[in-house]
Amino acid sequence: MKNTGVLVANDLKRERLKSTNANLHRLGISNVVVTNYDGRKMTSIFKKFDRCLLDAPCSGIGVISRDPSIKVQKTFDDVRKLSHLQKELIKSAIDCVDAHSKTGGYVVYSTCSISVEENEAVIQYALQHRYVKLVESGLEVGSNGLTAYMEKRFHPSMALCKRIYPHVHNMDGFFVAKLKKFANGEKSQEAISTAHEEQQATQQLKEKKKKATQKKKAQKLKKREQKQKAKEDEVEKPEGQESNS
Fold first, then answer.
1. Which of 93, 164, 210, 219 is deepest in the core (most CB within 10 A)?
2. Closest by alpha carbon to 186, among 92, 122, 108?
3. pLDDT tens, N- to C-terminus, the chain (245 residues)
4. What are the residues whose beta carbons fall under 8 Å from the beta carbon of 180, sequence distance 6 or more?
5. 96 classed as catalytic
6. Alpha helix stretches (DSSP H) within the chain
């Protein structure tokens, strides 16, 4: 931005603001306002941002290689609590952004975790409760986001997210999603229900098609096996007759 416009850097932990300010001075950045608010309450102060980056608090599962203590300190209950917090934060981040901004209307969500509960599940929640859609992140590194995990099913556009795995990409584990806000306000319960029903219907149709395809393949394989067996029987029959003669 070359020190134009205004950036707002917010952190819940007051003790971390000292290092933030020090880095801003060191880098010669003069267009940043440093604040110390609860991210869930930012909408009461800011509502017309062009863009928002939410680096959400997470379990840190993606950085276990640098901090092995996470393996024994974090539990699944911690992940569930963090997922709830992340959902509240992403709603607040979206509400802070103006959908009618000529230069923005984007929200980037990121975590240093690879758990589905902290990533795809949070984005799915945002898609259901706010007028946003997923767009290309622009990242060249990383695997696509998950559209299905165990019994969970997510929106097909979840593949636009990026997952970075330590054992695959030789980097810290990370998740990035870029959302475009196309309307202000919250989705009504009716809209949420309709969207959920449409998603379920789409998923059921996909599963039905998948089963039909599998059935056709099984039938073709059975016919092929029957033909092969018939050919083998024809070959074996003359040999049996010759041995009898």
1. 93
2. 92
3. 888 899 999 999 999 999 999 999 999 999 999 999 999 999 998 888 999 999 999 999 999 988 999 988 999 999 999 999 999 999 999 999 999 998 889 999 999 999 999 999 999 999 999 999 999 999 999 999 999 999 899 999 999 999 999 999 999 999 999 999 999 988 877 666 555 556 666 666 777 788 888 888 888 888 888 888 887 777 766 555 554 54
4. 105, 106, 132, 133, 134, 135
5. no
6. 17-26, 70-73, 76-96, 120-129, 166-169, 189-244
Q: Annotated catalytic residue: which of 58, 96, 112, 161?
A: 112
What CA–CA distance (Å, rounded) separates 36 from 203?
43
CB-based burial label for 8 (10 Å; 0-12, 13-18, 19+): middle
133: which strand partners?
Answer: 180
Query: What is the CA 152 to chain-centroid distance, rounded?
Result: 13
The token duo for 71 is: 């393996």
Query: Could you tell me the two tokens for 182?
Result: 């196309």
CATH fourth-level superfamily of 37-187: Vaccinia Virus protein VP39 (3.40.50.150)
**What are 125's two structure tokens?**
């929640």
Lookup result for tokens 């992403």: 90
For residue 234 the two structure tokens come to 């024809």
Residue type, 151: E
Q: Which two tokens stand for residue 98?
A: 């103006």
> Looking at the DSSP assignment, which residues form a beta bridge with residue 163?
143, 175
Structure tokens at 148: 């299905």
Half-sphere exposure of 127 (CA within 13 A, CB side): 21
pTM of the model: 0.77
